[in-house]
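Sequence only, no structure available. Ideas?
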Amino acid sequence: MPNESVNRAVRLIAERSIDKASQSFSKMIKLGAAIDLKRIEMVDIADISADLGGVPQEVIGSMVDLVGDAPFKFLFYVETQGAFSLTDLLLKRAPGTTVFIDEFVTSTIQEIGNILASAVANTFANDFQIDLRPTAPMVFNDFAATLFEGLIFEAAQEDNRVLMIECKFEVRKLNLPCQLFVIPMPGSYKILEFSG
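Reply:
I predicted one. C-alpha cells follow.
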C-alpha cells in the first residue's frame, strides 16, 4: 500500500462505517453522540505509541477481533470516570452513582464495544461483499498506551507502519470524549483494495 494515500473506496467505506457506528451508539444511549473520523492513514507505530505514552491516562476499553475474509482489530476506550458516567447513563441511574469498576461498568463497556464494532463490521462486509463478523468483546482497564500496543501487536508483525482508522467522539451534553481505533490485520488491506 502506498504510504501517501489510502484507497478511495476504503476511505469512503470507513467514513460510512463510522457514521453508522455513531447512529447505533446514539440510539443505544438515547442521546446524541458525534463520532468524527480523525484520520485514516498509514502511520508509524513508534510515533503513535510515543504520542499515547506521553500522557499516562487510565482508561477502560473494549477490544474486538473482526474476523473473516479481511480481519481487523477494533478498540474503543474511555477514561475511567467517563466509563462510570456511561454506566449511569445506560442504567438510567443518577449521575455520580457509579464510583468504582464493577460488573455493571464492565458490561457497559463490553456492550458499547459490541455495538460499535458490529456497525463497523456490517458496513465493511456489506460494501465490500466480504465475510466479516465481530467476536465477543474483551474489556480491559489499563493505560491507553498499553491498550493501543496490544491492539497493534499483531497488525505490526510484518511492517512498522499500519493502516489506522482513528476516531474521536463525544457524548453530547456530557462532554465525554472517547477514542475508537480500527486497524486491518496484515493482508486485509489488499483484500479490501481488490474487493473495492
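The chain has a mean pLDDT of 83.
Hope that gets you unstuck.
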